[in-house]
Design brief:
Length: 206
């Protein structure tokens, strides 16, 4: 697995079930923990990428997303704007994210590196802008004696600074429950034919 070196190796297991494991680690200089979620998806690589680029459907599988849109897509780089609801008295959050897709030509592992690009758009009305987002999706094909299995190891690694004043219990949701539920949603919806029939010209399947 490609290593997200900025977060180190000191991950603590926080939550797991038969499908998903969630880890967190502290981040120097931040009050918010980074998280790493692991699971195995039954999918093609193109299917997982197609799901990631289908921003209009994020609310169907990403926990805590109310609305989302992809406002620019150049193929291997795309930009999304999302709004996440927050309980009173915390303001809803909105985010602007740039995602860049790369693939290792030998292992075929796909990396989607994403980061906040707040300068591209003003905050939505009534929302507070997420201060920072820094993470990646890693999709590693699972092989059996050199043959494709139709399964992919999924890693979701991220550090979010939601900005403003956020109570401790809600901060924990950002680091554990929300990403955990998001991966559960990914596993459920990525099997849909519209994703599994997708092809992407710059992505090679095992």
């Amino acid at each position: 697995m490609a290593k997200h070196t900025s977060f180190g190796d000191n991950w603590k297991l926080e939550k797991q079930d038969s499908e998903v494991k969630a880890y967190t680690t502290t981040v120097p200089g931040s009050n918010f923990r980074a998280y790493k979620i692991e699971a195995i998806a039954e999918s093609t690589l193109a299917g997982l990428i197609a799901q990631q680029k289908d921003a209009a459907s994020f609310s169907k599988w990403m926990d805590g997303v109310k609305t989302s849109e992809c406002f620019k897509d150049t193929g291997d780089t795309y930009y999304t704007h999302s709004i996440a609801p927050a309980p009173w008295p915390v303001k809803d959050r909105d985010s602007v994210v740039e995602s860049i897709i790369t693939q290792d030509p030998e292992t075929l592992e796909v990396n989607i590196r994403f980061r906040a690009k707040n300068e591209l758009m003003k905050p939505a009305k009534g929302c507070e802008r997420v201060a920072d987002i820094n993470g990646e999706w890693i999709f590693t094909p699972i092989m059996d004696n050199g043959n494709a299995t139709g399964k992919v190891k999924v890693y979701y690694i991220n550090h979010v600074n939601p900005g403003g004043k956020v109570p401790g219990w809600l901060a924990n949701n950002f680091a554990v429950d929300i990403p955990f539920n998001t991966i559960k949603g990914l596993l459920r919806t990525v099997k849909e034919p519209r994703y599994q029939s997708a092809t992407i010209d710059f992505i090679k399947e095992p």
